[in-house]
Amino acid sequence: MKVARIAPYRRRGVAPTSSPDRDYDRTLRNQDAKRFYHSKAWRRLRLVQLAISPFCEFCLERFLAVPATVVDHRVELLQAWDLRLDLSNLRSLCASCHSRRHRSS
Question: Is 8 part of any domain?
């Protein structure tokens, strides 16, 4: 049985409200970093890293086998731009560990 999706109501001539994520992307996010994370080179290297290390490195230290979904730079991208495509500077993390790492720093 297919469920019909009802479109949200919007008055004519009124622009949709902006979201905090969209505002952050447009005004605060580093545009060079944004372009890098959308590049073909990064997408390929990310897949290589996840193939080499398919489990979260932080969870493995706690003897948990959690699949990695995020590739993180050990040395932050904006601190060492020349290491952005260096495989030794990457680690595989689950989304939870990645969020925890960036929340505390």
Answer: no
